[in-house]
Amino acid sequence: MGGTSGFLESLSRLAAAGRVRAATRALDDPRAVGARRERALATLLGAAAAPAGEAGGASYLQPIPPVPIPGAVQMPEIMAHLRATLPADAIVTNGAGNYSAWCNRFYSYRSFRSQLAPTSGSMGYGLPAAVAAKLEHPDRPVVCFAGDGCFQMTGQELATACQYRLPIIVLVFDNGMYGTIRMHQEREYPTRVFATELQNPDFVALARAHGANGTRITRTEDFAPAFANALEADRPTLLEITIDPEAITPRQSLSQIRAAALAKQAD
Ligand SMILES: Cc1ncc(C[n+]2csc(CCOP(=O)(O)OP(=O)(O)O)c2C)c(N)n1
Ligand SMILES: [Mg+2]
């Protein structure tokens, strides 16, 4: 499995041949529409999956196989639903936090300029980015991924979304903590939890107070109908998704991280 490195190798080969630059420039050209745009896209994506780069190319483009996570909400299934439901031109936004692994690793971005995310890793970016994206592209679905901590940084922008009646969809991943920081605490100082728990508002009630739609998702099967309603809505929708605190990463539970760190200390 070459994974990301194989993909990068493929891109480097192309870059060496001067083709990445040409294709990227073609995509940046506003006149690059229709067949011209498709050709440029095919150069980049097709080459990434070309046989010489098979080490990573083709496998990189495959969805990551899902592994069940703790709790009644199975994010791998929800991400599969989003991949199947959202059109290629949907815009997905996020801030920073462990929740963002879901959209960064389990969503397939199929066209350029379909992701808005901070390279600086700043929390709170997703919601204002979604507002801006929907204003600019009213015909494209816009979905914001936000952790509970992340949402609390800029959640008041829901007022802006309501003021301009922007039917964005905000997924708030409620695990009751600054999960990323808790993960590092458990890795470096197992059992010494400090200032990472969050007492959250009722996000659904908060959304409704703003004039947005709000629904709580506590089971995987609640998601698809709520998301379908959100896609049809004439105003913002906030879906508060209850995440088991144990489900700290797509692959490792909080207890596993703690146990591994304790075992390392005991060595
Ligand atoms: C503005 C800002 N403050 C602090 C941080 C440091 N930081 C990175 S992730 C994180 C916690 C994120 O919590 P949450 O949004 O609830 O996501 P989770 O990790 O729980 O999924 C913090 C405090 C940051 N990246 N940006
Ligand atoms: Mg959180």
Output the structural class.
Answer: alpha/beta
The stretches of 5 or more residues where confidence is low (pLDDT under 50) are 50-56
Strand order of the largest sheet: 2-1-3-4-6-5
Task: State the major sheet.
Answer: 6 strands, parallel
What does the average pLDDT come to? 88
- Tell me the series of helices and strands, N- to C-terminal: HHHHHEHEHEHHEHHEHEH
The CATH superfamily of the largest domain is identified as: Thiamin diphosphate (ThDP)-binding fold, Pyr/PP domains
* Bulk shape: globular
Highest CATH level, the class of the largest domain: Alpha Beta
Whole-number count of domains: 2
Question: Can you describe this structure?
Answer:
The chain has about 270 residues and is of the alpha/beta class. It folds into 2 domains: about 1-60, no CATH class; about 75-260, Rossmann fold. It has 13 helices and 6 strands. It has helices spanning about 5-15, 20-30, 35-50, 55-60, 75-85, 100-105, 125-135, 150-155, 155-165, 180-190, 205-210, 220-230, 255-265; strands at about 90-95, 115, 140-145, 170-175, 215, 235-240. Strands 2-1-3-4-6-5 form a 6-stranded parallel β-sheet, with helices on both faces. Strand 5, helix 12 and strand 6 form a beta-alpha-beta unit. The two termini are about 30 Å apart. Residues about 50-55 have low confidence and may be disordered. Bound molecules: thiamine diphosphate (TPP) and magnesium ion. The site of thiamine diphosphate has 20 residues, from helix 8 and helix 10.
In short:
This protein has helices at residues 3-16, 19-28, 34-48, 57-61, 75-85, 100-106, 126-136, 148-154, 157-163, 179-188, 203-210, 220-232, 254-266; strands at residues 91-94, 115-116, 142-147, 169-174, 213-217, 237-242.
